[in-house]
Amino acid sequence: MTSRTATATGAIAILLWSTLALFTTMSGRVPPFQLVGMTFVIGGVLVLAIAAMRGRLHLARPTPASFLLGLYGPFGDTALYYAAVKTAPAAEANLIHYLWPLLIVLFAALLPGGGLKLRHLVGALIGLAATALLISGSLGSGAGIQLGHVLAALGAFVWASYSVLSRRFAGVPSESLAITMLGCAIAAFACHLAFETTLWAPNAAEWGGVLGLGLGSIGLAFICWDIGMKKGDVAFLGVASYAAPVLSTVILVIAGYAPASWLLALSCVLIVVGALVASFGPAARSAAPKAVS
Description:
Layout: H1 3-17, H2 20-26, H3 32-53, H4 64-87, H5 90-97, H6 100-110, H7 118-140, H8 147-165, H9 177-195, H10 204-231, H11 234-240, H12 244-255, H13 262-279, H14 282-287
Helix pairs in contact: 1-10, 1-11, 2-10, 3-4, 3-9, 3-10, 4-5, 4-8, 4-9, 5-8, 5-12, 6-7, 6-8, 6-13, 7-13
């Protein structure tokens, strides 16, 4: 695979992630842990099928360390994100969660040799201002700070820290994501049985959300991003990922799951600007590559 093809493959993940909030909202009544389990089973089976068709099924074995990291990152972040979108206005939770690109830049800058620069602090303050705007909107409407806001912020932290730590596992084959996702599904179903009531009969729209997440935003997106990060133009993909919160918010508004407002638009712009400011410069460009969503 050429670098150009790998970069295009990674860009597909960004487009798929722009539908994450829409499909999560569509899943409706499906409890968060049940949703994680269902979507990760679909995603894991999809990746196994792709590996089998390419004759690379023998590579679908993660190392113990990469498997545990997968439980922390993909499982932890996805569960937090699903719960956030279901317990706060979808667009607000989605945008707060999309602080993860900015956090990745900050975390990478704190690594040995990274160097925390003024631009990192400025970018963080801009992102914080965007989050404050969203929260102030909820306070003004009388809703107050909701659980979903907190869960979205925790999810952003989990994904950012996972992304930086994943730099140590660049040599692990992408096909190993299949087993990791199936392991995440088992953990999710265990949590579901312990803490939630099963929804046995999702309606057509809810099934559409589950399938959209499992096949696209979880299954195909994870494998595409992994390929892009390992073989493509990582600097380009790192910057291009900042388009995801804009695209996802626009999709939510068009689909009627979020009202259009100047506050939402301004917060969206600030989050993207903050991430771009923090990532501007040669040090940040070398840090962005290992970020995954």
